[in-house]
Every structure is written in structure tokens, then in C-alpha cells.
Amino acid sequence: AQTVTQSQPEMSVQEAETVTLSCTYDTSESDYYLFWYKQPPSRQMILVIRQEAYKQQNATENRFSVNFQKAAKSFSLKISDSQLGDAAMYFCAYRRGTDKLIFGTGTRLQVFP
Amino acid sequence: ETGVTQSPTHLIKTRGQQVTLRCSSQSGHNTVSWYQQALGQGPQFIFQYYREEENGRGNFPPRFSGLQFPNYSSELNVNALELDDSALYLCASSPEGRGQETQYFGPGTRLLVL
Known about the structure:
The structure holds two protein chains of two kinds. By secondary structure, chain A is mainly β. In chain A, 0% of the residues lie in helices and 51% in strands. Chain A has strands at 3-5, 10-14, 19-21, 24-26, 33-39, 46-52, 60-61, 64-69, 74-79, 88-95, 102-103, 107-112. Chain B is an all-beta fold. In chain B, strands 2, 4, 5, 6, 9, 10 and 11 form a seven-stranded mixed sheet that branches. The A-B interface holds A 4, 33, 35, 37, 42-47, 50, 52, 91, 93, 95, 97-106 and B 31, 33, 35, 41-45, 48, 50, 56, 58, 88, 90, 92, 94, 100-108, 110.
């Protein structure tokens, strides 16, 4: 069965600095998708970034980028120039095709001014 | 284009009661999934509907049931509520074809069972 592991329950970063959140996953599949979602205290799960496993190029979305290492089954999220509004729970998630999303346990990110 | 909406935002029920939660998919999305998120946990998959048919189910008992309507809105019904059913219930929709692998979430319904 596929699993997603986030080993950092909490992380903190100073405003304008860079932080990296870790995620590892386990699967025997070769074709799948990986996601990072952000969940602020308002509870809504917001898509941050998406990566297709068949693409070697790391996805980027403005200040957010990933380091996707398929062989190592690692998918970390880098947030550059951190802002106060980035403070939230961040969930790493795996999906094969249109199957269910499998989430990690989340990393709480605090941003200090 | 409207996003995914859910109602109600909060709900309090007592043990043994039944509850219905509602979700309106994002415009043009014909697949809807429901997730349960306990406090401090990641969301857990309950089930998924595609064109009004259930096409995937997680490890939840039969007292969790659902419906999808022709306009692709959806309901989650929970019978015989238990204290452990207290959680945030999230609905997510995705389009058919291009982009179908990405799910977009609603704001959730917070259910408290006393």
C-alpha cells in the first residue's frame, strides 16, 4: 500500500528567509502525481504545487518549488522569501491517476517577523 | 467560476443521530471525493463519485453513505453517529480529462458529536 511520511511536525522560518519541508513516500507504481497542499487556520485545503512523476523537471510556482527525487521517493517543498501569510499546515499528498489522495500527517509552518 | 462550496460550516449532533453534509462541485467538475480529517491528522479518504456512481471507497463503515446528483453536487450521510465521527469533513472535486488528477477542496464542515 502507498504511504506518505512527513517527518517534521513543526518548522519555523524568519520572514524573507527560505525553508524546506520534507516528504517521503512509498509506492511500487511508476506513474503517479505528488502534491503539496496548504491548510491555514481557515481550514480550506489550498493547492500549492503539483508534480507529475514522469516529468524529471522540478515543478515551480512563484516562490514555491519542489525537489523531486523519484528513485529516493522524496518530494520536498522549498518556500523562498517566506511571508507571514505562508504560516499554515502543509500536507504532502500522493495520487495514482484518479484514485484517492493519500496524505501525510502534515508539517506546521510558523513564520516569524 | 465558483469554487467548491460546502454546507453547513459547523454542526453539532448527539450520539446516535444522523447527519447530511452537502457539497457543490466547482463548475465543470464531475468527480467528487469526500475526506474525514480528525484533529491534528491528515485527511482520510471516505469515498468518491463519478457521474453519480460510487467509484472508490476507503476504510469506512456502511453507515457512511453518499450521493451525487445530475448537477454533480453531492451529499455525505452518516447514520448512528459516534463520538469518533467528530471531525472536519472535506469535499473535493476534479474535472474530467485534462487536469483530472488534481482535486480542489471546499472549506469543510466541522462536525461535533456529543
